[in-house]
Design a protein that fits this description.
heterodimer, A: alpha+beta, SH3 type barrels, two-stranded antiparallel sheet, B: mainly alpha, three-stranded mixed sheet, 16 helices
Amino acid sequence: MMRMRFFIAAALLLVVGGAFAADKMSVTVKQTQLRDKPSYLGKILGVLNYADRVTLLDLPAGTPKGWLKIEGPDGKQGFVNVSSLTKNTVVLAAGSKNVESEASSGEVVAAGKGFNSDVEAQYKKDQKLDYTWVDKMEGFATAPEKVTAFLTQGGLQGGGM
Amino acid sequence: MKTILRVFPTVSLMLILAGCGTLDTLQGAASGNPSDIAKTVETGKQGAEVGQKVAKANEDFTPEQEYYIGRTVAATVLGIYKPWDGPKANEYLNTLGNSLAVFSVLPETFKGYHFLIMDTDEINAFGAPSGFVLISRGLLRCAASEDEVAAILAHEIGHVSLKHGMKAISSSRKTEALLEIAKFAASSSGNDVLSGLTASFGGVIGDIVKTMVTSGYSRDLEKAADLEAIRILHDVGYDPAALVRVLKAMEAKLKPGGKDFAKTHPDPEVRIAYLNDAIKAQSAAAKAPAVQMKARATRYHAALGNI
């Protein structure tokens, strides 16, 4: 009987633990925006950084596919696109959100430990590759506001956003 | 004792990764399905508990790892084709490209989508992992409007968002690379496994570049990118038939036996046939007012009029 109770308690713990685990997600891109609507045309309420943990909230009726309602680490609530989140945990070195410096210094427990800037530097040296224009490409940053203005100017607001 | 402790987690990781379900997970995660995107990173502190968590973390490449792969694929392609230093044109492509990418199945990559023109008359384009998109001047000259440039970019965004570049990595290479990553994650300094990891990285890059530049994607993947392109164009508000018009212009310019699109892409006639069917099946979109159509034409000519 005791053994039975133990198994039931253990099973309950697993179920409850699983439910709690499913309520949290982590940011898996360098930075993403928290918006007031489930749309890239929505007003930006704040930014979320790589490895930030967010709490999933109930989805309002009619939320388009691909969008989630969350509460960020600072307590702000809003919508983010699912492509910026992972259901797993991303761990960076304590107290820092600087992905590049952590990755290159090898301090990131998981996030920077794979193909990272150290590997790129080694490969670049071995292959004598030039990344000048790749770095310049990354410099062509398009602010979310610019995308919105571009779409509006061209009569392109679309129905899918 | 120290050696045993160091070897044990590595061997455990290899066993876990080689064991039940891992290959299925890898294949599933490489599908490009948005639901798979939410399966990327999990880890824990280094130490005794690292094995299970890191093994799970390495079931697939993370968006961060895809970013480093994409950077190096782009650098390799730019070793073959020179970049075109046209600030206005490149800025326009980036604004247009990002406006399309937010409608894709992968609107956010690790550091976003970036577009660059290659200075060649060849008709060619490459959508490298994580959103590094390269388009030739020759291909841009096949477009006669913003809608048609959007069609070209949407096709490449289709390749990126459906992860076709990552699918070019052979399964054995992928398993090997993920094992190296697992070893790296379990290593205290990383320095002892850097050479193995760099060699695996090189193999991954080689597989992708070979497919993108030399052999081309399969007909099925090209069709998937085409169909994704017309879906994006439709949802944004561009004319999906613009892709058909670009293909017709390309068909007229492509040289038989050339080393560009002609070599790596299906016959434009075949593509036009299935695209016309798919476009007919789409709901008709309302045409934008004349003032906004004029705005599109003005900005297109200002940026790419002399390409």
